[in-house]
Amino acid sequence: MADKRRSKEKFFVVGEVRRGRLAPLCRELAGKARQLADSAGGEVTVILLSDRLAEDPETLFSSGADRVMVVEHPSLALYNQEIETNVLAFLLKKENPAVVLAGATTSGRTTLPALAARLETGLTADCTGLEMEEETGQLLQTRPAIGGNVMATIRTPSHRPQMATVRPRTFPLPPASERQGEVLFPWIPPSLFESRVENLGFEEGDEGGGNIQDMDVVVSGGKGLKRPDGFGMLRELAALLGGGVGASRPVVDAKWIDYPHQVGLSGKVVAPKVYIAAGISGSVQHMAGMQTAEFVAAINRDPEAPIFRVADLGLCGDLFEILPRLIERIREEKRKP
Ligand SMILES: Cc1cc2nc3c(=O)[nH]c(=O)nc-3n(C[C@H](O)[C@H](O)[C@H](O)COP(=O)(O)OP(=O)(O)OC[C@H]3O[C@@H](n4cnc5c(N)ncnc54)[C@H](O)[C@@H]3O)c2cc1C
Question: Is there a contact between 139 and 161 (Cβ–Cβ < 8 Å)?
Answer without folding.
Answer: no
